[in-house]
Amino acid sequence: MLTFYIIGITDDPQACFAPEVADIIRRGRVFSGGTRHRELVRRLLPEGHVWIDIVPPLDKVFGAYRRYTDGLRGAEEAVVVFASGDPLFYGFASTVHRMAPDAAVRVFPAFNSLQLLAHRMLLPYGTMRTVSQTGRPWQPLDEALIGGESLIGVLTDRQKTPNLIAQRMIAYDYTNYRMTVGECLGNPQRERIRRFTLREASACREWQQPCCLVLEQTTPRPRPFGIPDAAFHLLNGRQNMITKAPLRLLVLSALDLPRRKCLWDIGFCTGSISIESRLQFPHLSVEAFEIRPEGRELMELNSRRFGVPGIGVHIGDFMQESLEQLPRPDAVFIGGHGGQLTEMVARVREYLLPGGVIVFNSVSEASARLFRQAAGDCEELHVALEGHHPIRIMKKCYD
Predict the structure, then answer these.
(1) What residue spans of the chain are helical by DSSP H?
(2) Mean pLDDT, rounded, for 147-160
(3) How many angstroms separate the CA atoms of 27 and 30, rounded?
(4) Range of the domain at 11
(5) How far is residue 66's CA from residue 70's CA, in Å, rounded to a whole number?
(6) How far apart are alpha carbons 384 and 284 in whole angstroms?
(7) CATH number of the domain that 340 lies in?
(8) Coil/strand/helix, residue 382
(9) Spatial strand order in the sheet of 129-132
C-alpha cells in the first residue's frame, strides 16, 4: 500500500519542523513536490534521495511513486511530499485521495497563504469566503462576487493575476471592493503586502509568485429580485423582445433553479432569462444560445450592466451548434425555436441530464400543441399580463 506523509510548508527557506516531521524527512528516501518546494527544503534532504516533480500528467507521477517505493520497507516505503500551506486546503492531499484512494495518508499542515495574509492584516477571517483561481475557471470568484460576499480570499496563479482579477471586477462594476495582495508570504527576504484600489491593482504588472489576495467589500452592491424591463438594453429598442419581469420570475420558479447546476437558455435575445437566473442563483452554470448576431453585444452590455460575468454565449443556429464540449444541462428554457420546436426538443433531450426539466412559453395553441407532442404530458400555468396576450408556461420534467 502506498503511504504518504504530506508536509505543509510556507515560503520560508529557513523553516524548522517539529521533531516528528524532522525524523520523517531524515529517514525518508522518496520525496516529491514542486520545483519551488524542492529549493526550499533542499538543505534537509538526505543523501541518495529520489525527488519526483509533481507535474502533469499526474498518472505518470503516481506511477513513479509506486515504482520507487516498491520493495521498500519501514519508514522508507513512504512518499514524503512537500506542499504549500495546508495540504487539505485546495492542496495535494485532495489529489492523493482522488488518484490513490486506498493510500495511507498523514498530513502535517502549516498556515495556508490566505491565513498568513489575514494574520499580517490583523483581519478576523472566520467569515471569509475562500476561492481558488489556480488553474481553475472563473466560476468560484464570479459566484462569490454575484452573491455579494463581504470578505473574499483568492488564491491566484501566473495566469489569473491580481491585475487581471481587478480588471474583470471593474468590467462588471464590482468596484465596491478594495484589494490586499500578499506575495511570497513567509519568506523574510521577499514577503510583500500591498493594499490597492481596484483601479490601482488593474494597472500593476509586477507580482512575485506565489501570491494571494483578500477582497474587502466597502459598500454593498444592489442585487434586485426581478430586474426592471426598462433597465435592459433591448433588441432595436423593441419592448416586446424581452421576457417581462413577472413572467421571467415565474419561469425561474418553473425551472426549479435552486437545485439545478446548469441552465441552457435557447433563444436568449436580450439575455434577460440568463442574467436573472445567474443573478439570483450564482452557483448556476449558464450557456446561452441566440441565432441573431446582435445577441452577442446585447448579452455583453446587459451582463456588465447587472454585474453577471461568466455566461457562455453561443451565436448561431442551435440546431447546428456543436454541443458535445458544453456542460450537460439539468434545466433548459426554450425562448425561441425558429419554427423547429419539435426538432429542438428532441435535440435537447439528447443532452438533458436525468431528472432535468424543459420550460417553454407558448403564445398560441398551435405552439402549445407542438410542445405537448414533442415533450409529452406536461404542467401548464396560464398567465395574463395587462396589455399582452395570455401566455402558457409549459414545464416538462424527465425523471
Answers:
(1) 19-27, 35-41, 58-69, 92-99, 113-121, 139-146, 162-171, 198-203, 245-255, 272-280, 294-305, 341-351, 365-375
(2) 96
(3) 10
(4) 3-110
(5) 6
(6) 29
(7) 3.40.50.150
(8) strand
(9) 129-132, 151-155, 211-217, 177-183, 192-197
CA atoms within 13 A on the CB side of 151: 10
Do 9 and 101 fall within a single domain? yes
- CB of 78 within 8 A of CB of 26? no
Rounded to the nearest integer, the mean pLDDT of the chain is 93
DSSP for 9-44, please give it. Answer: E-S-TT----HHHHHHHHH--EEEE-HHHHHHHGGG
C-alpha–C-alpha distance, residues 146 and 160, integer Å: 19
Residues 175 and 324 in one domain: no
Angle at CA of residue 175, ends 170 and 181, nearest 5°: 85
Q: What CA–CA distance (Å, rounded) separates 99 from 285? A: 27
The pTM of this model reads 0.89
Q: Is residue 253 within 8 Å of residue 185, measured between CB atoms?
A: no
Helix (H, G, I), strand (E, B), or coil: what is residue 212? strand
| Grid cell listed for 342 | 419539435
Residue 149: pLDDT above 90? yes
For residue 139, CA distances in Å to 56, 131, 382 come to 23, 9, 35
Answer yes or no: is 62 within a domain. Answer: yes
3-state SS assignment for residue 240: coil
Number of domains the chain is built from: 3
Cell of 32: 516529491
Q: What is the pLDDT of residues 339-394, one digit of tens each?
A: 899 999 999 999 999 999 999 999 889 999 999 999 999 999 888 776 667 899 99
Final residue of a structural domain among 182, 217, 252: 217
> Radius of gyration (Cα) for the chain, nearest Å?
26
Percent of the chain at pLDDT > 70 equals 96
ω into residue 137 within 30 of 0, thus cis? no
Distances (CA, A) of 108 to 38, 85, 87, 269, 381: 17, 9, 8, 53, 57
Contacts of 248 (CB under 8 A, 6+ apart): 226, 227, 272, 273, 276
CATH number of the domain at 106, please: 3.40.1010.10
203 & 343 share domain: no
Q: What is the DSSP letter of 364?
A: S
Is residue 73 a part of any domain in this protein? yes
- Taking the chain, what is the end-to-end CA distance rounded to the nearest angstrom? 42
**pLDDT reported for residue 44:** 94
